[in-house]
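Ticket 4471: requesting a sanity check on a complex prediction with ribulose-5-phosphate. Repro inputs:
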Amino acid sequence: MEWNNNIVGRLKWSDSIVNRSEKESVAKQIAAKVKDGDVIGVGSGSTVYVTLFAIADKIKAEYLTIEVIPSSMEISLACIQLGIPQTSLLNKKPDWTFDGADEVDKECNLIKGRGGALFKEKLLIRNSAETYILVDSSKYVNRLGEKFPVPVEVFPSALSYVENELSILGAENVELRMAKGKDGPVFTENGNLLLDARFLRIDNNLEERIKAITGVIESGLFIGYNVQVIS
Ligand code: 5RP
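Returned structure tokens:
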């Protein structure tokens, strides 16, 4: 039975989409890669959202059957709206994944997680033989941390301990990410909190060292991953 109401159908992206035309251009490149039968891991963020529209058009035009594995509620809702079938990592392994990023350096190392979906995004990338990171020109940096802090997903009762440990690792400033549409902090998809940690220097082993802190679920550092950056 179908719902009579259409709350999901009426949803729109929460903010205005910056650099939209650049995002639409990379979206077309990704839609061109979609083949019948593909299982595709889908990251989060506005670039991914725009890309889903291009993929939905291709599915309709070519009568394709595909499934996607979303990394967040935001993207799952967009897939329902666009009629794109979904599955999960428990059922299927992705043939490939696409995602966005907040920063990309010359070695294709990334900072991700402004959208707070970094844990599932990392899980999808780890499960995929191929990953495409879609970026507009604003995302390129000379060194990671130039524009964005490193998001760190933290089990709630470990908040103070993790803040302290991040400072010991060299974080200059650590902020609890606050929500915009509700009072209090942002809760992640997994019911955890986010600390945004600003580092002046990000070494290749910082991702491992952050992950080793008890209470850290995951960080938004993606250093040395097998990804192809598309712009
Ligand atoms: C979400 C992410 C996004 O991919 C990243 O924040 C980029 O977002 P946008 O495409 O809106 O610039 O990591 O957790």
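Notes from triage: The domain at 6-140 is CATH 3.40.50.1360 (Rossmann fold). Leaving this open until the requester confirms.
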